[in-house]
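Long-time lurker. I teach an intro course on protein structure, and each term I like to show students one example going from raw sequence to a predicted 3D structure in token notation. This year I'd like something fresh instead of my usual example. Would anyone be willing to generate the tokens for the chain below so I can use it in lecture? Attribution to the forum is fine with me.
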Amino acid sequence: MRLWRIPLDIEKQKVPRGTMYLVKERCKGCEFCVEYCPRDVLAMSSEYNVKGYHFPYPKIQERCVNCDLCETICPEFAIFCLSEEEQEGTCNSKP
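-- Reply from a regular --
Happy to contribute to a lecture. Here you go:
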């Protein structure tokens, strides 16, 4: 998305980042997540899951802004996103 105006405090703004995770066995290959991703992060794989469907994969993971649209739109609850802060909290936490 190209901006025609630039905010005055652009240096202070932090772009949220996230990582997409997929449970391949749950996916039924509906492609909703690929079609409606606003940042065009996902693409369909040529591989098959256990159900015989193609599943999505992150083709450009760095573009994910953790909008959670893929998680919200997935009818099988096969996809979810974690923000960088959530990832740091789960990786560094000790039992």
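Some talking points for your students: Helices lie at 32-36, 69-73, 84-92. The CA atoms of residues 45 and 52 lie 12 Å apart.
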